[in-house]
Amino acid sequence: MTNEERDSKINQISSDVSDIKTNTAILNKLVEKHDIVLFGNGRPGIIEEVKVSKQLHEDCPARQEYQLSNKTYRNSNIIALIALIITVIVLFANAMSWLLKIKGMA
User: pLDDT value at position 24?
Assistant: First the structure.
C-alpha cells in the first residue's frame, strides 16, 4: 500500500467516524425528546396520562353497571341452557321408555 492509498483510507475512516459522531448526536437528542415525552421530566408524561386514563376507564360508573348487567345476562343464559339440557334429557328418557313399552307389546 502506498502512502497516498493509506492517506486516502485514513481520510475515509476519519470521514466515516465524523458521520457516526454526527448521527449519534442527532439520535441522542431524539432519544432525549422521547424520554421527556414518555416520562414527563417533572410533568405528567404519556405513561402517566395512560395510567390516569386507564384508571378513569376502570372507575367509570357506566362501565361498571354494564359489566354487572352483562354478568346477570350471562347467568340467566346459563340457567336457560341448563333448563334446555334437562328438558332434552327428560324427553329422550320418555322416548326411550315409550320405545321399550312398544317393543314389549310387540
Answer: 93
Residue with cell 339440557: 85
Mean pLDDT per segment of 10 residues, for the chain of length 106 residues?
A: 89 93 93 88 86 90 81 85 94 87 71
Confidence (pTM):
0.44
Dist. CA 61–CA 105, nearest whole Å: 66
The three-state (H, E, C) secondary structure of the chain, written as one string: CCHHHHHHHHHHHHHHHHHHHHHHHHHHHHHHHHHHHHHCCCCCCHHHHHHHHHHHHHHCHHHHHHHHHHHHHHHHHHHHHHHHHHHHHHHHHHHHHHHHHHHHHC
Cα–Cα distances (Å) from 81 to 41, 72, 73, in that order, read: 56, 14, 12
Question: What would the grid cell of residue 36 be?
Answer: 421527556
